[in-house]
Amino acid sequence: MSESTVYHVIAYYWQDFKPVVLIYNLKTRQLSELPLTFIDFTASASKSCVGRLTEAGYTPCPQQIVLTDAALCADCRPPAIPVMSCVFEPRCDGERCDYPDFCTRPHIVYLALYNNLPKVGMTSQKRFKERIIEQGADAAAVLFNCENRLAARKLEKEVSTRFKIAQEIKPQRLLKQWLSAPTKEQMVNVYQTYLQKINAWQTTLKQELTIFDQYPFHQRPRSPPRLVKTAGHHRGEVMGIKGRFLIYYTPSGAKALEMSDLVGRSITPATNDDSK
User: What three-state secondary structure class fits 251?
Assistant: First the structure.
């Protein structure tokens, strides 16, 4: 990376168990991947629309609209997801918009484990493995098949309420699970306990638990990593990456950076002078 170069982070995703941070050189207008073995950069406080990335190539947002939560403005958002709020809370079976494919395709409700912490979730049927890796779970299994997204969301909520299984786990609880490697035996026991309870209420698919243990994890921290603000300077050897979190080493202890929150921000890699 050249001196004083500024990059726009336009995507963070997983290719199987390989995390990818896609960055756009604002000067040369070229795409590249951010190296994830040692990080040393400063991230901006503000975010701007990431534009469009398709099979035909990348097109920056023509207006460079400043955003808060979403990474895409209304003009750059793919038509397949016409209402962003429906990603989290579908409003119908797909009949209320011109692009129903996102909601009407088959979905599943699954149980995921982070070490021994259970979580219930839902996703489209064809994205089960991708979704589990995106979330950094250590194991997971499909509980139910559903005909559409709304049905899956309703069933997810019902399972969560009836069996007191979280739909979201707070970052600090997740980061504590990084201290020790989970064992298959322990996770299977936790899964079977919940599966028995759920089956007594409604028959599940009774799938075996799938273990996800190929994340790039090189060294476990001695104490829970401290979650830091995304905006600011980050420097250190990368210890591991799971889901949306990257853990890096510092002399004061391991720190956790939420990589999904980098999307839309500008980052400036440190020059040789900066790192002295």
Answer: coil
